[in-house]
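Let us practice reading a record.
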Amino acid sequence: DVETNSYDKKEFNSGNDTIAVNLLLDTEGLDFNVMTATTCQHLVFSKDETFDQLRGKGPAADLLLSRWENFQRWWTDEDPGKKSWIMWDVAIIEALARPELVVKKTFTTPEDNHKRYIEAYTSIDTAAIKKEFFLSVGAYLGEMR
């Protein structure tokens, strides 16, 4: 939570390996940048837009679209029609590739960790990230043919 500088170490990803999370937070000198769930939750791709952008772009695109249709989202009962998907991983990849599309701020580690400063992404330009993603993926898929 950027307002309170508080942490939920039981969040979906960090909760899967709290030992690793604490190691990262406690390691002095580690350049640690966090894409938080509260920030990347806003990068939502709609099924219609994604299928419009990727349909007919070749076998790799077909695989991605098939994954959208067939993957069983075990972590949520929301959106049974799979009309949208939060693209958590795309958020961090695009943030690293295009730092001009994100905002990072400095925070201190949680009280139960070694006190040091880390960076967290606090805002992302979702429209620009989607545009860049579809341009990049479209170009890449075109080259694969």
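A brief commentary: The longest strand covers residues 117-124.
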